[in-house]
Amino acid sequence: MNFQRKKQGYLIISPATKTILKKTKKRWQEYLDKTFAGKKVKDFPEYQNAAVKSIETLIKNWQSPAGAIKHDGIVPSMSYKWFMGMWGWDSWKADVALADFHPDLAKNNLRALFDYQIDSDDDVRPQDKGAIIDAIFYNQDSSRGGEGGNWNERNSKPPLSAWAVWEIYKETNDKKFLKEMYPKLMDYHRWWYANRDHDNNGVAEYGSMVSDANWKTDESGKVIKDGNKNPKLDEEAVIEAAAWESGMDNATRFDKEGSGKNDVGVKVFENKRDGEVVGYSINQESVDLNSYLYAEKGFLKLMAAELGKNEDEKKLTDDASKLKKYIQENMYDKRTGYFYDLQINDDGSKTKLLVNRGKGTEGWLPLWANVATDKQAKSVKDHMMDEGKFNTYLPFPTASKDNEKFNPDTYWRGPVWLDQALFGVEALQNYGFDREATEATKKAI
């Protein structure tokens, strides 16, 4: 800035700098005015302060385009070098918040990830057409000529981008933006079923792309090959990528050894197209992933209606109806009254509901996505509000307190992640449990 200093130590601010400061103050005030417009916030100053803090955090984590990142956007943290990039679902959650007060930034934040959506003519993984990769950083992955960092093309992230686009559209009515994003969102949605649905039953699994990081290596880092001179698959590396793809990196449901009687543990399946491996799935249809995909079908259906895509609208409606029935009938345990992942065998002919691995936040995602029945939702609500399970001092931990592997200090095995807590609150609201939702919100604040 164009500051000048007097001998006495006073600052003289130039007219140009005064103009900048005035514009900056106006910009921040507009963030607040848009956020609080029409809302009864004066009666709840503690929530108003929390909202202001959230706005400050989002804006302070705003990064300009640089290096491989082509659009400005929000990074998860400014205080730790490994978080100075953009991840799919982190960005899309930020976009839902930004839509209220800075939709233009939300649009660019979305574009930053979609700038690297895989095309059919991609020179590394054309079989992944439509996929959105896990994370992008200033330095691109060495497989594409850069120096690495946290750049990751081995897996994707839970599909929440259509939710973000629809929230932005509701705020802006920007049909041009909707037209820009819709075909990209549809390609991403189709990718899940082309590359992550092992038995082709319309129900997806977490997994991994084909990647050099999935090969076994010796002590010197050299790839180990089989008798046919093909690289040997490292199943643990694929399971790691699948857990990363879920966003819940070390959740108890992804422990390779499994838990309890008749649990074969986490296995890896090859997904093939025309005889070629196009990716890998783990042997479980995850309830959170398919709840997200159900919700995504709903948002895409709304977009299709806005854009006059009648055939898409009908197909999305039909597919959503089938998936809803499947989740209700196959991923809910009547005895314990909760939703779980479903273990499958190679051809999908045998399944096991993974009640034995304990309850986690994934179990209330069907309520967030409006896919549960009223009876199922009530039972899930009872678990959520039980102080011996999820209604802890800070509510809605990532694993229930009655999960034998619960640990309040270990990442996704007990600590509270506020995105999952938010989904929990909205899940309760979706089924009319407003008192419980308010109680949990006040407790968290």
Written overview of the protein:
Pfam families: MGH1-like_GH (PF22422). InterPro entries: 6-hairpin_glycosidase_sf, 6hp_glycosidase-like_sf, Glyco_hydro_37, MGH1-like_GH. Residues 85-440 form the Mannosylglycerate hydrolase MGH1-like glycoside hydrolase domain. This is Trehalase family glycosidase. Keywords: Glycosidase, Hydrolase. With 445 residues, the chain is mainly alpha-helical. The chain has three domains: 1-39; 46-329, Glycosyltransferase (Alpha/alpha barrel), CATH 1.50.10.10; 359-445, no CATH class. Helix content is 42%, strand content 9%. The protein has helices at residues 15-36, 45-60, 88-98, 103-114, 161-172, 175-195, 235-246, 287-307, 310-330, 365-368, 374-384, 418-430, 434-444, and strands at residues 3-5, 11-13, 62-63, 73-74, 86-87, 135-136, 207-208, 268-273, 276-282, 284-285, 332-333, 338-339, 342-344, 351-353. A three-stranded antiparallel sheet has the order 7-9-8. Strands 10-13-14 form a three-stranded antiparallel sheet. A hairpin with a 4-residue loop joins strand 11 (332-333) and strand 12. The model has no long low-confidence stretch (mean pLDDT 93).
A few lines on this structure:
The chain is mostly helical and 445 residues long. It has helices at residues 15-36, 45-60, 88-98, 103-114, 161-172, 175-195, 235-246, 287-307, 310-330, 365-368, 374-384, 418-430, 434-444; strands at 3-5, 11-13, 62-63, 73-74, 86-87, 135-136, 207-208, 268-273, 276-282, 284-285, 332-333, 338-339, 342-344, 351-353. The strands form six sheets. Strands 7-9-8 form a three-stranded antiparallel β-sheet. Strands 10-13-14 form a three-stranded antiparallel β-sheet.
